[in-house]
Amino acid sequence: MNGYNFAYLDEQTKRMIRRGLLKAVAIPGYQVPFGGREMPMPYGWGTGGMQLTASILGESDVLKVIDQGADDTTNAVSIRAFFERVAGVETTTETGKADIIQTRHRIPEVSLRHDQILVFQVPIPEPLRFIEPSEEETRLMHSLEEYGVMHVKLYEDIARHGHIATTYAYPVKVDGRYVTDPSPIPKFDNPKLHMSEALMLFGAGREKRLYAIPPYTRVESLDFDDHPFEVQQWDEPCALCGARDSFLDEVIIDDAGGRLFVCSDTDYCQSRREEVA
Amino acid sequence: MRRPQLERSALLEARDITRLYGPEKGCEGIDFRLHAGEVLGIVGESGSGKSTLLRVLSGLEAPDAGRVVYHPPVDRGVDEVAENGELDLYAIGEARRRALLRMEWGLVHQNPRDGLRLEVSAGANVGERLMALGERHYGQLRAAGQDWMSRVELDPQRIDDAPRTFSGGMQQRLQIARTLVTRPRLVFMDEPTGGLDVSVQARLLDMLRTLVRQLGLSVVLVTHDLAVARLLAHRLMVMRRGRVVEAGLTDQILDDPQHAYTQLLVSSVLTP
Predict the structure, then answer these.
(1) Is A238 noted as a catalytic residue in this protein?
(2) I need a labelling partner for B229 at 20 to 30 A (CA). Which of A6, A229, B48, B171 fits?
């Protein structure tokens, strides 16, 4: 498109963000500040993820964008259309074909490869924020590895609900050092972070922070000895493709309380149904 | 002939501490030694510098001059003890200072809301310091929480209640439980009975005295209330305008004050 640089951001900004990304990869889980630019959409819609995608996107790359696992929701459709217009790159909905996948709230069910990059849109990058409002203090806590308060939250969950009721944005420890918020992915996806083949990049536009989980990095979910980390389970399989190993969304289908459980990863569901057919 | 060692080694030493915000605002030239198992009271009127001194001693604020020296006990020291068994509080790094504050020391704030996390349950409050030390067993954390709640005379049934549903006196007890759960050697208390009515105060003081004796705590106690000092403190320091004007045994100072200001202070106590 005329009048815009390739992938919207100017080259100096992309260089600045790539320098930040290099630092983030070198220190897994560490939040690197960056000079966030204004994007042509409001904060909270994925401006952080978009700036990261724009900085690493090449002309021959194939892009996939998902929102809650789906390729066809508003956020996914508009971000995909945006990069089609400002970068002219090829886009896809197939996980296997994509080089870069920008995501909100999910990790695809199919395991990613080492030549793929997953870019997360992060609302609140600081896992300690809920208990410590001061940025100065949280930075100090990170540098001194004072992570006792993270367990206060989990303790409180068990005390109130009888089990760890945190189901998304479940805190993890990356490479045995930094406690990190894996963005609001369901805890179902936490095990996929561990020793992942693909590079995982996280961008928070409003907070202007980016961080990374490099390939083949240890990622442990925090828990108690007598209340170990567990992922969600469903009693029934996906109503469309019959998958028992994927994250299911509950869909209300009528006014009488009828409901359906279907895969949240639309591409996974689609490909399974095509296989059967 | 072998003589008994009369010079017991001090636990905490203040060496010529000065922290001034302005002339006579803060504390100046403070020198004292606190021995293991001893309760030292610091009394004086508002603005005399006692809270500033406590902040400096407890590692919250670096002094302008002077040193705060801690002698960690041999049996459970902080990893490698510094040369000749001394730890200079502001010479060691921030990481070690904070570790020391978490593990060996405790701080009880005047207002329990400063020392508690009001949004999480009583049990989580008591367990926080244990979790910070690496305790990762929910059942044990809970047992410790209930044990300490009953020690400070709180109903262990209320372990899952939020501190904001507790009365002022109960919040103060909870704060004390939260501080003592890691068995600190040294506890700093800033007006622990401030803002409580007299009967609640009396029960709290009684409990504090028992705990101090049972656990062999060393305490630095800041108060403006001479009755509290009389009950709890073995030794007293009287401060005025940032300086110590008189120091000695509690009974000696309260019964036979030498300095004019101490005399004024003692004679100002209301007796019903």
Answers:
(1) yes
(2) B171
Q: Is A33 buried (19+), middle (13-18) or exposed (0-12) by CB count in 10 A?
A: exposed
Q: Which residue stretches of A105-216 are H helix?
A: 135-143, 148-161, 190-193
A96 tagged catalytic? no
Write down the pLDDT at residue A130.
83
Q: What is the DSSP letter of B16?
A: E
Two tokens at A247?
Answer: 């994250």
pLDDT, tens digit, for every residue of B168-214?
A: 889 999 999 999 999 999 999 998 888 788 888 888 889 989 998 89
Reply yes or no on whether A46 is catalytic.
no
Q: Give the nearest chain A residue to B128 (CA atoms).
A: A152
With a pLDDT cut of 70, the percent of chain A lying above it is 99
**Whether A29 is catalytic:** yes
**B105: nearest Cα among B18, B6, B188:** B188
List, in sequence order, every beta strand (DSSP E) within B1-149.
Answer: 10-22, 25-35, 39-43, 65-70, 87-88, 105-108
The CA R_g of chain A, rounded to the nearest whole Å, is 19
Look up the pTM and report it: 0.85
Residue of A18, A19, A29, A32 whose CA lies nearest to A212: A29
Are A146 and B98 in contact (CB < 8 Å)?
Answer: yes
Any CB–CB contact under 8 A between A144 and chain B? yes
What local confidence, expressed as pLDDT, does residue B138 receive? 95
Q: Which residues of B touch A142 (CB under 8 A)?
A: none
Query: How many residue pairs from chains A and B have C-beta atoms closer than 8 A?
Result: 54
Is the CB of A160 less than 8 angstroms away from the CB of B160? yes
Token pair, residue A76, equals: 């996914």
Residue type, A202: F
Could you report the per-residue pLDDT of A163-173, keeping only the tens digit for each?
999 999 999 99
Q: How many CB atoms lie within 10 A of CB B247?
A: 16
